[in-house]
Design goal:
Length: 304
């Protein structure tokens, strides 16, 4: 009997050490996961800030016939962020009072707020744009565009462009169908397309690229009875294939996340944009009027 008891004791001891080993492995695994997460493994996809080499190559010998200095400002969230731990939102956010001040700065400096449709007309010589024009663009169609931006647009009676992702409409953080109809009715807002699913277009099959681009245009046009002529590449990611599809779909312009202020016939399907951050007053004006535009390829033809 004592012998047997000993054996049983031994067996349960080894069972226990097996369980604790399992717990240790789980703990180590979770710690490793946390380290990987903390080291930026889970960080958002960075925006593209340079013209892809293949695109640079294809425009190397093209001489621009027309170029206009029309800064296109890029915004995401404009709101008072409620969750202090939401660092991604905070990094992409501009508080409404700061946005109001930016608009005031631009209006007092004599800027006219035009849309991308106006810019396309300017590039096509269909109309002469005001000497000092600026375009405000908002990516992703967040709900704060209706709650925080739209009231400021109405207050100053200025125009802006919002890029909407059809499959995100009516989500809790995004514009609702009703809100989009309301902002269209105001006549102050141009609706642009931003793919069906906020898809990174570079490296996708041509069929997927075509679907995301074409469908986002036709969906918005059918749903809201409007013409959608401007497109924004999610993450600013584009290549020659995406440019071709944007042209074929019937868009008249497309914007990227490449910094710059020159809009030309050459880059009308990969227009540069400026991130104003929280700049106001002379800081903001200096940013828009800066003569050195580093994002234009080092190519005499483009700069001449
Ligand atoms: Zn986006």
């Amino acid at each position: 009997m004592p012998e047997r008891r000993k054996k049983r004791k031994k067996r349960s001891a080894s069972k226990q050490s097996g369980v604790s080993l399992f717990v240790i492995v789980i703990l180590l695994f979770s710690a490793a996961l946390l380290i990987v997460k903390g080291s930026g493994f889970n960080k958002p996809i960075p925006d593209v800030v340079e013209i892809p080499k293949e695109v640079q190559e294809s425009i190397k010998n093209v001489k621009p016939q027309k170029y206009l200095r029309v800064p296109i400002l890029l915004y995401h969230y404009v709101e008072y962020v409620k969750d202090p731990k939401d660092t991604i939102r905070k990094s992409l956010n501009l508080e409404p009072h700061a946005f109001d001040l930016e608009v005031k700065t631009l209006q007092e400096a004599g800027y006219s707020f035009i849309t991308l449709a106006d810019l396309a007309d300017g590039l096509d010589d269909k109309r002469t744009l005001p000497a000092k024009s600026v375009i405000l663009t908002f990516d992703d169609g967040y709900r704060d565009f209706y709650t925080d931006v739209f009231p400021i647009l109405k207050k100053y009676q200025i125009k802006a462009v919002v890029f909407v992702i059809p499959n995100f409409i009516d989500r809790p953080d995004n514009l609702t169908t009703w809100m989009i109809s309301e902002i269209i009715k105001s006549g102050l807002v141009e609706i642009g397309a931003h793919t069906m699913n906020h898809t990174y277009l570079r490296g996708l099959s041509l069929n997927q690229v075509r679907y995301e681009i074409e469908q986002s245009k036709s969906y918005l046009e059918k749903s809201f009875g409007i013409q959608v002529i401007s497109f924004a590449y999610p993450y600013g990611a584009f290549d020659n294939g995406a440019i071709d599809e944007v042209k074929k779909a019937g868009f008249r312009t497309a914007v990227t996340t490449i910094p710059g202020t020159f809009s030309m016939d050459v880059n009308r399907f990969f227009l540069y944009r400026v991130r104003p951050g929280g700049r106001v007053g002379p800081d903001l004006l200096e940013l828009l009027e800066r003569t050195k535009v580093t994002s234009i390829p080092k190519n005499e033809n483009i700069l001449s």
